[in-house]
Write a structure and sequence with these properties.
Elements (H helix, E strand, L loop, with lengths): L1 E6 L2 E6 L6 E2 L2 E2 L4 H9 L1 E9 L5 E9 L9 H10 L3 H16 L9 E5 L14 H8 L7 E6 L7 H13 L3 E7 L5 H8 L3 E4 L1 H4 L6 H16 L3 E5 L4 H9 L4 E3 L7 E2 L17 H7 L21 H10 L5 E5 L5 E6 H8 L4 H5 L5 H7 L5 E3 L4 H9 L9 E6 L2 E7 H18 L9 H13 L4 E9 L1 H8 L1 H19 L5 E7 L2 E7 L3 H22 L2 H6 L1 E5 L5 E5 L2 E9 L9 H14 L4 E7 L2 E6 L8
Helix pairs in contact: 3-4, 18-19, 19-20
């Protein structure tokens, strides 16, 4: 294979005849060209900021000096290694080099190393598992230090083989990150198959996210999915303060990019932006913006099995806590690996080798074979979504409950009994609060929605519906048909909500209804309101006498006892859009009253007001699709 590369400004042609083989001492000396290439390569390290703590979570190792080795890009170097069937050998060299350089960072043993894997490794003839473990042992680093980044940049030829590799890595204690999420077309399939500990969002979705509602909506759904599976999300390529603030507002756990810190060589003084600007921005805001686990969900703080514990210590842990038959198992960074059941200990204790195990301090092999998988959910996830996760558990996972984390770190355990108790209590509470006519949540539930929205930083839309001319309709046609009209609205609202956690509907009382939307656009909500108006008008006409429908008015007594013509009942809607969340509770009654008044006089029956913080930035009277 002949290639051309630059040396001192001149182009030199060279050839590679042999494929380098990994040995205990490194690469063989026979291939001088590979030695030449490897001598040039180095790593720069880019910090990744933990939003919650303001500290560095880890560093990504980024390959550098490939141009000095004659390659236009990292991908060109890796492609060349693939062509020569030497990718695995090259990768092992790079892992060792990355770890050597990483350990020169002053805080390395408290941080994680993000290392990019080329999934074409699996196609190499010399691919073997276990080499990384030996290198980590040599450097006295735990497996949890390593975060392997896999990408959909190159298609996996065998999903099953990839899953096998990842399962082995995870069993050995490594963390898995899905890199460049969104750059390919199989992202959701990879999330489903890999169940990554970390999802890294591609720069495309981060660039301009502060001014692009569509991108924010997409990212919110990805973040929600990742958090529900107990994972964390990295916003990659954050370059401006506005992008940083937007990523924090929508719930990203980790931030990476020039705004936090540029990739730097070890020889440079590692200074990150987080020490000055990024660390001080919005931590308090994010804490207040995310609700904690509902009080009804009684989480238990079970003492975990920690790294370094021997068999005898684990047995003692079970003896000290006879009320528990299982214990969470954590790695060195307080991240949960799964559950250890008492039955697993008994089967070993009563075996012929039980006494020997009591004196065996190395428990890694034992735990790797006896930890049971368990779903993990974030402390800040919606309680109903946590319950939904548990209901979907498969036969490969423990049905004892769900491990709860706080931004990746173990926080507690939610047992199946606690979840069943919560469901029972919620149903009783819901039945007490429902409107007796429509069965919709009443004012207490509406108030809880508003209080929650007052602390959130994500866009929120609230809509108050009013049935105009309902009193004369009631007087003209009687209470029974009046109730039928209200019931038809109630059924339409239930159908609209459809079980979505991002749509809340309630019945304020009488002919007043409430809707709350999270992560929706004004345009989409406007369409829904128009559909509600049209649906009600069709239902209403079935209650009216044909003559009233034909002349488009009805006659009824006014408050003075005199006959008067009234328009037919119609729905008017006061729509308030809070672009940055933070609904002002103290002003909401006044704002709603003002907007309802405007809506009643609007020809379309819809009036829209948009707020940024506490300031109104737009209002659209007589709203139509052209206006929104």
């Amino acid at each position: 294979m002949v290639r051309t590369r630059k040396r001192n400004g001149a182009c030199v042609r060279w050839s590679v005849v042999t494929v380098v083989v990994w040995t205990e001492t490194g690469m063989k000396q026979g291939d001088m060209i590979w030695e030449d290439i490897l001598r040039e390569l180095d790593f720069a390290f880019q910090p990744i900021l933990d939003v919650a703590s303001g500290r560095i979570y880890g560093y990504e190792a980024l390959l550098r000096n490939y141009d000095r080795a004659g390659f236009e890009s990292v991908f060109a170097l890796l492609d060349y290694a693939v062509e020569n069937r030497a990718l695995y050998t090259l990768d092992l060299f790079l892992r060792r080099l990355a770890l050597q350089r990483f350990l020169q960072l002053p805080d390395a043993r408290k941080r994680r190393l993000f290392y990019n894997l080329d999934n074409r490794l699996l196609e190499m003839p010399d691919y073997r598992q276990g080499n990384t473990h030996r290198v980590l042992e040599e450097f006295d680093l735990p497996a949890s230090t390593m975060v392997f980044e896999i990408s959909e940049r190159h298609q996996f030829h065998s999903i099953e083989r990839m899953k096998s590799m990842i399962d082995t890595y995870r069993q050995q204690g490594y963390r898995i990150a899905l890199d460049d999420y969104g750059v390919g077309f199989s992202g959701l399939q990879l999330i489903y198959s890999v169940e990554p500990d970390i999802v890294k969002l591609d720069r495309f979705f981060i660039q301009g996210v502060d001014s692009d509602p569509k991108k924010r909506l997409f990212l919110q759904h990805v973040i929600q999915l990742s958090h529900l599976m107990g994972g964390m999300v990295v916003a990659e390529g954050v370059e401006t303060e506005d992008e940083y603030r937007a990523c924090v507002r929508i719930g990203c756990d980790l931030i990476q990019g020039y705004f936090v810190g540029r990739p730097l060589f070890i020889e440079d003084s590692i200074r990150t932006h987080s020490d000055s600007t990024a660390r001080d921005l919005l931590h308090a805001d994010r804490e207040s913006a995310i609700p904690h686990l509902k009080p009804g969900l009684q989480m238990q703080r079970i003492e975990p099995v920690r790294p370094g514990m021997g068999f005898a210590q684990i047995v003692e842990l079970f003896k000290r806590n006879p009320e528990f038959t299982l214990f969470p198992v954590l790695n060195e960074f307080e991240e949960p690996l799964g559950l250890l059941h008492e039955s697993s200990l008994k089967s070993i204790t009563y075996s012929p080798y039980g006494k020997d195990l009591l004196h065996n301090r190395d428990m890694e092999d034992f735990l790797s074979h006896h930890i049971r998988k368990c779903y993990v959910a974030d402390l800040h996830a919606d309680a109903d979504e946590i319950l939904k996760i548990f209901s979907l558990q498969d036969s490969m996972r423990s049905r004892d409950g769900i491990l709860i984390t706080d931004r990746g770190r173990y926080s507690g355990f939610l047992s199946s009994t606690a979840m069943l108790r919560y469901v029972y209590q919620e149903r009783i509470e819901s039945a007490r609060e429902e409107n007796p006519l429509t069965g919709l949540p009443g004012n207490r539930a509406i108030l809880r929605f508003l209080e929650d929205a007052a602390h959130r930083l994500d866009p929120t839309i609230i809509v108050y519906l009013d049935l105009d001319n309902f009193k004369p309709f009631n007087d003209r046609y009687g209470f029974q048909k009046g109730d039928l009209a209200l019931l038809s609205i109630g059924e339409s609202l239930k159908h609209l909500a459809g079980g979505s956690r991002n749509i809340f509907v309630g019945h304020v009382g009488g002919d007043d209804f409430f809707l709350g939307f999270r992560r929706h656009t004004v345009r989409s909500v406007f369409r829904e309101i128009r559909r509600l108006q049209q649906s009600f008008e069709r239902a209403r006409n079935s209650f009216l006498e044909p003559a009233d429908v034909e002349r488009d008015y009805m006659e009824a007594q006014n408050r003075y006892g005199q006959m008067q013509r009234f328009p037919l009942p119609v729905i008017s809607a006061a729509l308030l859009f809070f672009a940055q969340g933070r609904i002002p509770l103290t002003d909401i009654s006044r704002l709603v009253a003002e907007t309802k008044s405007e809506a009643k006089s609007a020809r379309s029956g819809i009036f829209i007001r948009t707020f940024s913080g506490s300031a109104e930035i737009q209002h659209v009277g007589d709203a139509s699709m052209a206006d929104v």
